């Protein structure tokens, strides 16, 4: 093709057809420009196709990540409610002065267990951040993802940290007032003196505080679970477009 254009130019020059040559040269420039524009457009299409595939992959990964978090929260809420039952048994014993070693021995560990750690993952969101948010074409979805992972979820984890602020004091109290044993039901706390324990103001306050914490953790986890499921729904809607 290049040789053909070269022969045409040489033929026009040799015949002295300057006007035709200039017209031809201009046409040749137009063809080159058109070729460049087509090549650029093809490259743009290819990049857009690659970005769309990458966006789809990252959003699918994020959905999987959020669904795993949802399962963790559902399981954790069940665990909290399970441990709250032991807390209720101990609180009833305190209130009614029920000194029954056998009935209470398996309840103390569950009543005092820290249930604030849920371990939510942000792997899918981190991948999107590392690749750049421009990969997400839907600006509304992008803003909602940023708000969810940069504000909503950190706020939840901050609230859950309430359960860890007195771990050292709690462990010290347990060591001073219980002997830790294990049986077919797992770990148990056996008090050195049950009657004295049930009249200990710090212990009474500790059991009440633990129960209040668990009630609050259940509320905020259920709220975040709902927000997470709503976010999953929005991402799936975007994937189905």
Report on the structure:
The chain has 241 residues and is mainly alpha-helical. The protein has one domain (2-239). It is 78% helix and 5% strand. It contains 9 helices and 2 strands; from the N terminus they run αααααααββαα. The chain is rod-shaped and about 105 Å long.
Brief overview, please?
The protein is mainly α.
For the biggest sheet, the summary is: 2 strands, antiparallel
List the domain count as a whole number: 1
Distance between the termini: 44 Å
Strand proportion, as a percent range, falls in under 5%
Note the overall shape: rod-shaped
Task: Write down the secondary-structure element order.
Answer: HHHHHHHEEHH
Structural class determined from secondary elements: mainly alpha
Low-confidence stretches: none
Q: Classify the helix fraction into a percent range.
A: over 70%
Query: Got a strand count?
Result: 2
Tally of contiguous helical segments: 9
Kindly report the average pLDDT value.
84
Strand order of the largest sheet: 1-2
Using only C-alpha atoms, the radius of gyration works out to 34 Å
